[in-house]
Amino acid sequence: PAMAHRISLRPEMWVRRVQGADVVDELLRRTPVPRAR
User: Fold this and answer.
1) Which domain covers residue 7, as residue numbers?
2) Using an 8 Å Cβ cutoff, are 23 and 9 in contact?
3) Taking residues 21-30, what's their average pLDDT?
4) pLDDT confidence band for 14 (50 / 70 / 90)
5) Residue 24 and residue 27: Cα distance in Å, rounded?
6) How many Å apart are CA 15 and CA 35, to the nearest integer?
7) For the chain, what is the HEC assignment?
8) Domain count of the chain?
9) pLDDT computed for residue 4 by the predictor
């Protein structure tokens, strides 16, 4: 929730009912986790 409020969505995203939390969730899901050494 802390990052989601900082995201500015384009108007077409509001129409599609996409929220900032959805964007953050997708970014975190796609970002690889660094491996431990």
Assistant:
1) 1-37
2) yes
3) 94
4) confident
5) 5
6) 38
7) CCCHHHCCCCHHHHHCCCCHHHHHHHHHHHCCCCCCC
8) 1
9) 86
